[in-house]
């Protein structure tokens, strides 16, 4: 029953929110054009989706692309606004990138301190001047995975898992409620991390 109730509440909130965007304007317009007629609930959400659809059509044709490019150029020249806009655009592009190239693998890593582990997503690899290899790992926050931390850590300090990208995000968004009871991880990685944690605890004492 709880999932049904949550679904109903979310849909009700979406309906009221979307309908309220254009409802005041439509109600006033309907009152002026058709005196005595009442506003019909739901017309606002239909109008809102229609506007979004038309904007999408305009943005996909040649003239629309030029307008969008011009708008982006204008925004990129405004201080502060350009930082927010460009960062948001890059984040959305990364999350909506086709295929699974944006996130390569789900790993565990010691974060925020030795002995505790966080779910991370490998996004890139790099090599330093001494030919030491590193992973670039994105550690999202929960339940909102669009924010988080970007860590550059040696490859030997991550624990590889058998989780898919989709499963990793399910675990995060659910706050750990939806989690695999049996998780296959690289035992060599786990043993290395255990030795590191033991050495860290010894140094602390």
How would you describe the overall organization of this protein?
- With 205 residues, the protein is α+β, with helices and mostly antiparallel strands.
- It has six helices and five strands.
- The protein has a five-stranded antiparallel beta sheet with strand order 4-3-2-1-5.
- A hairpin with a 6-residue loop joins strand 1 and strand 2.
- The longest helix is centred in the first third of the chain and has 32 residues, at 2-33.
- It is elongated and about 80 Å long.
- The termini are far apart.
- 8% of the residues are buried.
- The model has no long low-confidence stretch (mean pLDDT 75).
List the helices and strands and how they pair.
Blueprint: H1 2-33, H2 43-60, H3 62-75, H4 81-95, E1 105-110, E2 117-127, E3 133-140, E4 148-154, E5 158-160, H5 165-173, H6 187-204
Antiparallel strand pairs: 1-2, 1-5, 2-3, 3-4
Helix pairs in contact: 1-2, 2-3
